[in-house]
């Protein structure tokens, strides 16, 4: 009922423990608080909150238009509705090094388990688009060092994302990853890797956890969890998958409604009222206040 029972510090410790374990940590991307609960229900180890999804939720492209307050507000809403640790995309940190330190503290206060800061120049763009550029190594390291200096909870995960692979090649990505670890990064997110061998090369370059981004329609093949685990990947995200699935279904339903004047034929594909109410934990609220839950779903033809 209401928010999660675990505190943010407990969730952060849970993520750290999971990353030390033998199994790869799987984090589908939540596009709202309810989808985070669905991710939890299906037994995943964490929730990812994508900057692209947060921007799309506002009807904006993923080019650095969202603000820290918008990201912190929505990410906090998602994080507090699940027992799972939530990792959030903090773009380039929302400003200069002092702003990056503040970003860490704001997202700590919002209840996140960790964030990642990238090394793109502003305005940034989706990591799987062409034409992006990265800052120099000193600036990238300064961002991570500032994030570490702003951290108050030692379990809050500070991950460094590097987009340099698509700009200067794999050896540059290995060098950048090492520099970011030296600056204090707890984990590395090498964006737009082209093969399993490239993930293995990043694994060989650093001794901290590494992340694989399995986004559809991108530059990376959609490898399986076991394939990624075999080359030493510790964490895998599916950032926009649920949003794409939901929007695809919504688009098809609207087309059906336009063509036939009814959604009767789509009902079998919808989440039932009973399942929605179970996900929302109506029963928990009923046990708290018997006046909240006063109807009988058994007599509802739409269950």
What does it look like?
The structure is a single chain. The protein is an alpha/beta fold. The chain has 2 domains: 8-239, Phosphoenolpyruvate-binding domains (TIM Barrel, Alpha-Beta Barrel), CATH 3.20.20; 246-299, no CATH class. It has 13 helices and 8 strands. It has helices spanning 8-20, 33-41, 51-57, 68-79, 97-109, 137-150, 165-168, 170-182, 196-205, 225-230, 241-260, 273-279, 282-288, and strands at residues 25-28, 47-49, 86-89, 114-118, 157-162, 187-190, 211-213, 235-238. Strands 2-3-4-5-6 form a 5-stranded parallel β-sheet. The protein has a 3-stranded parallel β-sheet with strand order 1-8-7, with no helix packed on it. Strand 4, helix 6 and strand 5 (157-162) form a beta-alpha-beta unit. Helix 6 packs parallel to helix 8. The model has no long low-confidence stretch (mean pLDDT 94).
CATH-derived topology of the largest domain: TIM Barrel
**SSE succession:** HEHEHHEHEHEHHEHEHEHHH
Structural domain tally: 2
Question: What is the top-level CATH class of the largest domain?
Answer: Alpha Beta
CATH architecture of the largest domain: Alpha-Beta Barrel
